[in-house]
Amino acid sequence: MSNILIILAINFILFYRTLKYGYVSDDIPTFQNPPKFKNKCHKWFLWLIASYKWKPQYDHFLTLILHSFVGIFIYLGFGANQVSFWAALLFCCNPANNQGSVWISGRGYVLPPLLLLISLTMPFLAPFTLWAMGYFNLGFIAPFGLVGSNKAYLLTLMPFIWLFWAKKFKKDVKEKLTFEQAVEDKKFHFGKIILAIKTIGFYFTLGLIPFRITFYHSFINSCAGNDIMKRKAYSLKDKFFWIGLGILTFWIIYSLHKWDMISYGLWWFFIMIAPFSNLKRLQQEIACRYLYAPTIGLMISLSTLLINYPIALVIILTAYITKFNTIMRMYKDDYWLLDFSCCEDPMAWFAWHMKARKRFENGAYKEALNFWVLAKLINPKEFKLLFNISVMLRMLRKDKEAQEYFNLALQNIIPGQEEDLKPIIKDWREGRMRILT
To answer: Does one domain contain both 103 and 18?
Structure first.
């Protein structure tokens, strides 16, 4: 009981300040345009999954509670011992988890691992918790995290659960295929394997050593969008490819020799990160929210490895808390979020693009143009950047330069998006300006 209280206390001490924070990113449109609900129960459900925003203080409090529960059930679900206790502490304080532990709209990535951990801890609840987990897309693959544990028999429930949620899952995947994918994403070739291994290497490194905590990462960003980014994404000249290949090779060899909590923790990590490995991209290329569930496995492996070296664990925990204290402020509001993103990863063109959008919405047109130009210097062939610059130049009555950027934009339309962009291009030619988001 004392260990549970320590986990709770550390979570409240570390995250208490978030109760004063506001909404950022996707929180804002959801709050401004709340979904319709059938009754009070439905409203509470929408609030739980973050589809409905109530009030910043209440929303952040629920996020804090759920993150604390994940820590508690890591401790209980993995044996209620010193290894699982340290894993819980390291997980709760790991800055790489920020889009689940602080960001309200990241709650959809918190609930599936929480439900799975409850299933591990209280198997008699598994028929309900595993069924509830099936509501989330991650819930379709996450149950394979049970393989290798003493609760693997719970997988026998999954065929019925998958069948129940199959229609919703297919609908969600179809929407992702329609709106998220470019032509390059629909192709499969050897480069996709390189990309997947590289992605695994990046997440593995970030989960252990939170070296770059930002809302918008530059790593393999826009890898399906233009030739410059594509060549970089599929290149073997990247340390994260070799890290990914190394950890996969180590896990295979180690697991064949010995199956313990190190190998099981890594298995958990691989399973949870698999849907976001970019082998088949259905989402943003890189985001910290995808690392929330996989980090559980990493912390289990790390605490098992270092359990006989408590000083090392204390040093790592202190480093995590220190980093989290530094980056947590980015969730105060949208202004701070974008400023932190640009500072933490200045090569993330999308962060500068979002900053430009905010300045545009506030009427600071010249400042917005400057930020879009900065983004273009990083990613010179991105259609939306070139198009937005042409719009801004035209609004500032620099027609010759505007036409030049408009022509450049037309030369860099992402394959497969030609039909969707026809009305936008027509509007530009007819003098009706709009900014691409």
So the answer is: yes
Token pair belonging to 43: 């409203």
- Among 283, 307, 335, the domain boundary falls at 335
Asked if residue 435 is part of any domain, the answer here is no
Per residue in 74-113, pLDDT (tens digit) is: 999 999 999 999 999 999 999 999 999 999 999 999 999 9
Rounded to whole angstroms, what are the CA distances from 30 to 24, 49, 54? 10, 12, 10
Question: pTM of the predicted model, to two decimals?
Answer: 0.92
Domain count, the chain: 2
Domain that holds residue 274: 2-335
* HSE of 136, CA atoms in CB hemisphere, 13 A: 26
- Whole-number Å distance between alpha carbons of 394 and 435: 12
Based on the fold, state whether residues 397 and 301 are members of the same structural domain. Answer: no
For the ranges 289-293, 338-342, 376-380, the one whose mean pLDDT is highest: 289-293
Residues 224 and 258 both lie in one domain:
yes
**364 shares its domain with 420:** yes
- Mark whether 247 and 325 lie in a shared domain: yes
**Chosen domain end from 303, 335, 367:** 335
Domain co-membership, 184 together with 100: yes
Higher pLDDT, 379 or 94: 94
Residue-wise pLDDT tens digits, 3-46:
999 999 999 999 999 999 999 999 999 999 988 888 989 999 99
What is the per-residue pLDDT for 430?
84
Q: Confidence class of residue 357 from pLDDT cuts 50, 70 and 90?
A: very high
